[in-house]
Predict the structure.
Amino acid sequence: MVSTTVQTILLENLTTATFDNWTSGFGLADNLTLGNVSHIPNITGFEDGPRFPGYIRTPSMVLCTIILCIGVLGNIMVPCVILKSKDMRNSTNIFLMNLSIADLMVLLVCTPTVLVEVNSKPETWQMGEHMCKLNACFTLSKYL
């Protein structure tokens, strides 16, 4: 049987080493112990909960914005070209126009929700119940 002082020393060394290794990646204080917490560090950027880091948010926002702009422009041009010329109104081009309008609707509903999700707390929905159902409908329709 191990004495209580030896158990306490082993437990303090284990928790200190584990906690120090975990916090060293976040730039937190190096001398924290779990047994006698005298100072809890203030982690900036997490006042209202965790968020995605900047190296994920920035490229996601830039890429989604580029895709949204080019996609909306291209999918608006297809019906304009097909409806403007009578020679372009055949069954194949009408099908492509229908596909373009469907893609435009998916772009206008799903891409802004990605921009909101990337800039809000994970696992939360900020856009209301109707937009949640609409987004789910359009997202699932992409895979059918």
